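Researcher: I'm preparing a figure for a lab meeting and need a structural model of a single chain. I don't have an experimental structure, so a prediction will have to do for now. The sequence is pasted below. Please return the structure as C-alpha cells so I can convert it later.
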Amino acid sequence: MSDLAIATEGLSRRYGRVLAVEDLRLQVRRGEIYGFLGANGAGKTTTMLMLLGIVAPDRGAIRLFGRDLAGEPLALKRQVGAVSENQYLYPGMTTVEYLRFFADLYHVYDPRRRIGQVLDVVGLSARAGAEARTLSRGLQQKLGLARALLHDPPLLVLDEPISGLDPLGVREVRQILLHENARGKTIFLSSHVLSEIERIAHRVGVLVDGRLVADGTLADLRGRLEAMMTLELERANDDVVAALAALPCVGDVRAHGSRLHVTTVGGGDHRADVSGAVGRAGGVIVGMNTKGSSLEDAFVALAAPAHSSGSGRSDQDDRPAPACPRAARVTVAETAASGTRRVSRRSTGRWRARATGVIAWRELTALRRSPVPAVALGVALVGAAVASRSVAAGVSAGGVVAGPSPLYVPLFIAVLVLTAVLAFVSATSVARERESGTLETLFYGPVDVTAFVTGKFAGLVVVYLALCPVVALALLALASLTSLRVGPDLLLGVLLSTFAAAHTIAFGLALGALCASVRSAVMVLVAVAWVTLAVHGAAAILAALPAGGGAATAVAATFDSANRALSLVSPYAHLDWAVQAARIGDLIGFAVAVLASLACIAGLLAAALLGLRWRGAHRS
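Model: Understood. Here is the structure written out cell by cell.
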C-alpha cells in the first residue's frame, strides 16, 4: 500500500499561450491535511481540476493512493469527495433529493440513514425538505460538504470550503475537517483564509505562476523568514552588541538605549544562544520578547517576489525534503512499483453502467415533473386530430390517400412534434448542465463522458417509449371517430418511430455538447430546422413547376440534390423509407433504412462524446 494519497510527477497544463501549471510535483501523505496556497491565477484551481479528473493534463502523471488516475478514473473518483468554491445545484431538487441522487451515483449503503447522518453533521437537518437552490450561499456550501462526505471517501479535495460562511459556520466546518482527519481522512485544502490553514494544516505548498515554490511544514515556511527579538538590558554596551552580531543566527542588531532589537535568521529557537552571548559579554537581561512570523508573512514573502519577477522557478528540488512523522517521502515511480493495482475492465464497466442508470433515472424524474412532455403530447395529438379530419374528408370525397394507411399522416405529424421537442430538450439539457456548472459537479464523482451521454440518451428514449402507447391509443380513437381504416402497419409505424426519436435525441445531444451555451444550441437547432424545411419546400415547389429555361432547371436540380442529401441523414426520411418498404414487402429496403438510421444515431452519439471531451465538463 502506498503511503501517498496524492502524487503527481511533471504535471503541466497550458491554456493557449498561458502555462497554468508547469512541471508540478506534489506528494501528499495519507492522513495529513495539506494546505495548497497561491495567489489568484497561480494555477490552484487548474491543479485541483486535474486531480479530480475534470481537466486532463498536457503531460505528467497523477496517482491517487498509488493508482493511476488516467488508467482507472471511475474507481478512483469513488475514493474522493470534492467541494468547489461555488455549489452548482439542480433546479427543483430538495436537499434530500440532491444527496440521494449522489448517493445512488456513489452506491452508498443504506442511503437514507447516511443522508440523515451527513445532514446532521453539517447542520442542515432542519432544511432537509427545502429546495437546494433556495438555500443561502453559506448553507449551499455546507450542502456541498455534505455531498463530499456522503460516501465516506478517504480523500477530500476542498477548494475554498468556507467561502460564504459566517464565523460560526467557519468554526463548524473547521471542527468537521479536524474530526474527519482524526478518523484517517486525507484533506487537500485550498483557501485564501490563511488563518484557517495555519490552524489545521500539517503541511503547506505555495504555488506561484504554476510552479511549486515551497513545500513543507508551517515551521519550515516560517523558518525561511527573519524573526524579531527585543531585549531589555540593565545596561547596553558595545561588547554586548558585538557579541550578538558575531552569532551565526543573528542577522542584525540595533541598540536603542538599554533596549536591543535583534533580528534572527534561519528559523528555530535562538533564545538560549542570544542569552549566552549577552551573559558572556557581561550584560544582564531583564526582559525578552520574541515576535515570530505568521503563515501570512511567509506566503507574502514567498509569493510576492516570484510573482513580480515572473520567474516562477521552483526551489522544491533544490532543498532537502522536510521530515515526515508518518512515512518516508517516496517517488511516484517507487509508489507505482510498490502499490499500484489496476482495476479490471469489468469494474470500470460496472461503475459506468451504474452511472448511466442513475443519470437516465434523473432525466426521467426531471421530465416527469416538467410540463414539457404533457404539452408536447397535447400539441402532437391536436396535430394528429387535425390531420385525421383532413384525411377523412379526403377519403369521403373519393380522394387517394398517400402512404400505407389513412392514419399514416396523423402518425407522422404526432411523431414530428414529439421528436422535435425531444431534440430541443436534449440539446438544451446538455448545454444547460455545462453552463450552470452541474456537469462539473457530476464529474467529480464516478461519471465519465460515456456514462453521461448514454444516460441522457437512454432516459429520453424511455420517455418517448412511454408516450408511444398514448399516441397509438389516440390514433385508434381518432380512427373510430372519423371512420378511418386502421391498417396492420400502424403498430409497425409506431415502433419504427422509436428510431426517429432516438435519431433526433442523439442529434440534440451532439448539438448541446458542441455548443458553448443554451442560447447558441437553440439558435443552431432553429437554424437547422428552418434550412431543412426551406430546402424541402423549395424542392417540392420547383419540382411541381413546368420545365423552364436552363437557369430554372439548374436551380431546381440544385434544390433537388440538396433535398436528397438531407434525406440521407433525416430521421423522418428514414422512417418514411422503412414504412414504405415494409408496406410493399421490400425486406432489403427495410433493412437498409433501419441500418441507415442506426448509423446516424451512432455517429451523432460519437459526435456528442467527442464534443463533450473537446468542450470539457468545467464551467467556463
